[in-house]
Amino acid sequence: MNSAEHWKRRLYLPAYRVSDAARFSGARAGTISSWHHRAGRLAPALPNRQKGQHLSYLELIEVAFVASFRKAGVPLQRIRRAREYAAQVLGSEFPFAQFEWCAEGQNLMFDLREIEKDASLDHLVVANASGQIAWKRVMADRFEQFDYEHDFALKWHVQGRQNSVLIDPRVSFGAPTVMGIPTWAIKGRWEAGESLPEITADFGIDERAVLEGLQFEGVPMAA
């Protein structure tokens, strides 16, 4: 297996607990489960995940997108229709994780250039309106957290670009990291009684990165 096939395989491996996805995305764990396994007449917004199984990286990214859409007031079934349309048109199993999206009001849109490869086009497809065209608007904060490579959202600046916490499935098996060091490892050193200078020296990272990693892990820091 070559290196490209190796990291692409990681995108599909179950690696994230629902509780982790909830912490990263800002949604509740029970809410995330309901997006995958809706009861009653409503179909799930994010289908195909097996109950009790951890989320893959691609499923994690889709959860982050749905969390943002819901926070913006977009109805869950509208999100589902947009996802189904994009999956069909773009031929993608995980369209929220594979193509750059933005939201305007309660419409979900992706770049028309994903379908028509004319670089002069600057329109968006309104996915939940069966392909209606709309002008591009400013991307929401959530969407700006992602770096796209090889047609995937491969880097998630989970705390925003001003923060060093990063999730990349190619680094530390997709664990949140700061400057390549898993945040759980930094937390472990801190809880073992090591000081900031000791941690920064051992890992070769700066103090700000250590503090951001500890904050992400929920470690209370003295003022």
Name the descriptors:
alpha+beta, 38% helix
Question: Can you tell me about this structure?
Answer:
With 223 residues, this protein is an alpha+beta fold. The chain is built from 9 helices and 9 strands. The protein has helices at residues 3-10, 18-25, 29-36, 57-71, 76-90, 95-98, 183-191, 196-203, 207-216; strands at 101-104, 107-111, 123-126, 132-135, 146-149, 152-156, 165-166, 177-178, 181-182. The chain has a 4-stranded antiparallel beta sheet with strand order 1-2-3-4, with helices on one face. α2 crosses α3 (29-36), α2 packs across α4 (57-71) and α7 (183-191) packs across α9. It is globular. The termini are far apart. Mean pLDDT is 84; it is low at 135-139.
